[in-house]
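Our collaborator T.R. sent over the components below with a one-line note: 'Predict the complex.' Nothing else. No constraints on interfaces, no templates requested, no preferences about which chain binds where. So this is a plain run: every listed entity goes in together, and whatever single assembly comes back becomes the starting point for the next discussion.
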Amino acid sequence: MMGLSPWVKARAGEAPATETGTPPVLSGTEFDLTIAETPVNFTGAPRMATTINGSIPGPILRWREGDTVTIRVTNRLPISTSIHWHGIILPYQMDGVPGVSFNGIAPGETFVYRFKVEQSGTYWYHSHSGFQEQTGMYGTIIIDPAKGNRIRADRDYVVQLSDWTDEDPMDVFAKLKKQSDYYNFNQPTARNFFRDAADKGFKSAIDKRRMWNQMRMSPTDLADISGYTYTYLMNGTTPAGNWTAQFRPGERVRLRFISSGTQSFFDVRIPGLKMKVVQADGQDVEPVTVDEFRFGPGETYDVIVEPESDQAYTIFAQSLGRSGYARGTLAPRLGMEAEVPPVDKAEWLTMADMMGTMEHGDMGGMAGMDHGGMAMDHSQHGGHKMPGMNHATHSPLAKPSTTVRHARTEYGPSVDMRVDMPRTNLDDPGIGLRDLSQKGRRPQGHRVLTLADLKSINGVLDDHRAPMRELELHLTGNMERYSWSFDGLEFGKSTPVSLRHKERVRVILQNDTMMTHPMHLHGMWSELETDQGELRVRRHTIPVQPAQRISFLTTPHDLGRWAWHCHLLYHMDAGMFREVVVS
Amino acid sequence: MKEQPMNRSTTSWLKTLVLCATTLPINYALAEMDPAPQEHSMGQAQGGSAPADARDPHAYSDGFTLTEGPYAQTGPRQLKLADEHSFGSLLVDRLESVKTGDNTSVAYDLQGWYGRDYDRAVLKAEGDIDNGKLEESSTEILWGHAIDTFWDGQLGIRYDTGEGPDRTWLAAGVQGLAPYWFEVDATAYLGENGRTALSLEAEYELLLSQRLVLQPRLEINAYGKKDEANGLGSGISDVSAGIRLRYEIRREIAPYVGVEWAGKFGGTKDLARADGEDTSETRFVAGLRFWF
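Returned assembly:
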């Protein structure tokens, strides 16, 4: 060390390189986590990351339902930090949102989190301070059920997906403020126009663009931030690094997928294998077998795969914007790999993404088919106990209201569009995943998970009361100004949503933007229902698609102040954030 | 100094232009509310004003605020997101070498801002440098306030230098994005001794590829009163129409080449002719567009 400059010495002495890849597992009831800056190199350029115990992802915390856990979090950063336990029901002082539930953890301080674990399943934890989540502060929580595991598996792997940028995330944000399409390298060009004109005729090419251009909205703004700056990671490993999980043919493998990207939805598939979804957001669901699923920041899906042959399978997770992918491999032996599929060509948003249901015109075959689908579901499951149906005949609030009520503050500079005829169907997989077999992009019969496929197993949804009241909030934004909000009010101008302790309440979220927002309500479950008022699935993070109107019921069991926000970090930071007071 | 009173046709013409500039946002809003049959359902997807029965966005608060009510953190509010932070940017839209006939000069056109989404300080500066000397310049400092989704209203002052005495103006205008992505900047000015002026700038960005951008640009200036010392007549004084092709090495840095036609009109043209100057010219430009 003698020959090194003080700077290098300080760096080398205090901060060994970040460990990446499958993180260590910490289990028991007492945990010590240290937050520090550690060097990392994902792209060839060395950078400082913000890490938990020196690894990306942070350690996997393994808890047991019914235990009281104590987690001491020590801040070795020069700035304040925090950890939020995403999806965990706990007292608000333990929720870890600086300025809402506590004061944050000052540099040099240790904050002791202690709470009783009253649930089981797959969850995750991350910083709720600034952009620390983007620079590496996230990890997995696995909670084993008190009564033994209902889901049998021979192997059990965490697959945590995320996005990494070599840029300072604040610079990324500032660039979006100055030029909101900065990272979009898939914009409509004159070349596209002439190609369309040659293929479908001049008029059709004009028609395709007219409305978008008139409204000053981009049909290709899918993700705000793209592979131009992002490297997509699977368990802290780049696609080239090829994170690999081993299996023996014939085994049941449980994969706990966690969407920890800050600004990225992932479309996940394992070509050659069916995935049986058994949990969503840590909660048991009726098993549903699919070939592909999309999930956004905050969401988790546990799936079972049963590879029969002695071959490698690629776990492929392309970004919704189609600008890159995370990738890993399931293989009988280390070092094997399978073909990596090409990234799909990005599709343009459709008119249904802009305007919801439409009475006429080409709707991409989505709107309109929903109600039929729902009706069929009713009859198929007629024999099941459907708790949500109990109140159907008793309450005027049996069904969510369909009358669109825009807030006064949606008629101003903070909002670039309003949807008057939203779609309410849950069976749309979303832009880029619609009708893939028909388009020849996937094999025949390729099934993509939708919200309509998810049904909590009986017993998960245990509050059968009808809602006593209904709240309606709209998700809003102005892409040109890069401002995001609820009801046209950014956080600084907003007031809290006040809920009464243990009341049963319905929340309607209508998306008046052209992006999908994964909405995460802290401190209580979001129990998604259909547009017919039928309770379906318990979530902690609900993705709301463009021009979609969805509703959920909730029962706030815990007093306090809670955060409620879009889990796209840059939308949250722009102001798509509300406080909820339970009193 | 002799000031020629504004003639009637110039006055009405100016009125029209001021109206056009200031009602542009309203015009497009009305245009979009026009219920063309195939667009019925999106008649009011943008703009407009809130109906009387619009939902109160604070209706669910029970009177609580971010700092008051049960379980609020004590002391001043800690959590401030980007909507309460200021940002700033400087865009040098044109910094170019201008070749006209056998003369080569330099032109600049920049705009900076600092502030928040809906209120910001704006700096605009434009000028020509010939033989190392600032031939003419126009610099504005404005307060920009969002008046609409895509439009900011701007108020401030403009300071001009040129061949004659410097001129100071009060400025009021709108800047924003018109339907079909036209970037428009229209400002009306009020100077000393009843001088008035108008300027209108419009730009469009046509993407040939993800990095190759063709940018047509139109600028029109008009004055209400003759200002002989500065070579300006009343009415439209000058128009320039150009097209520039840039390549974005990064979003922030783009070299470009272009061609521009510029002409003088009316009284301004007469004054130029009397001085033996050209009244129109074709300019070849090469420059750098950059921002940070």
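Summary for T.R.: The first strand of chain B starts at residue 87 and ends at 100.
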